[in-house]
Amino acid sequence: MTTQTLNIRNYRLGPDAPDTLKPEDRQRVAGFLHTHLDEYGDALEDIQACLAYAQERGGSVTYAEEDGELLGAVVTNRTGMSGFIPENILVYIAVHGKTRGRGLGKQLMETVLANVEGNVALHVEPHNPAKKLYERLGFTNKYLEMRLTRSGGE
């Protein structure tokens, strides 16, 4: 990865957002995330739903490409809340395996954090190596997340 041709794009999305992420770029980002999230990933349909939420209700998409190849992507969603819940949730971040350890994740995170308004929350598995990056960027572990997952659409 050479920084000479690396291009980081940030799109603020939502009904009042000035930026427009082309549908083909949205699909490229969804496909990239589906491939490169590895064991932390979700179904392609869930990633596409997250991107649709960002487009319709607010959020951002930030991605890095070099010579037309996607090398990293981040998606945030606006929560519609503030104070008791952060205004943004970082839903997805992934970098291409060939770029890991070279600072691209940090560059993407810094771009995202410089371009979102309000606080940001994210979820990270305790054994995920990216946890150290988040801590260096100022994220703290305030809560233990617990979930009740209902089966069958209850």
Automatic annotation (TrEMBL):
CDD domains: NAT_SF. Residues 19-154 form the N-acetyltransferase domain. Signal peptide: none annotated. InterPro entries: Acyl_CoA_acyltransferase (IPR016181), GNAT_dom (IPR000182). Gene3D superfamilies: 3.40.630.30. It comes from the Bacteria. This is N-acetyltransferase domain-containing protein. It comes from Deinococcus aerolatus. The lineage of its organism: Bacteria, Thermotogati, Deinococcota, Deinococci, Deinococcales.
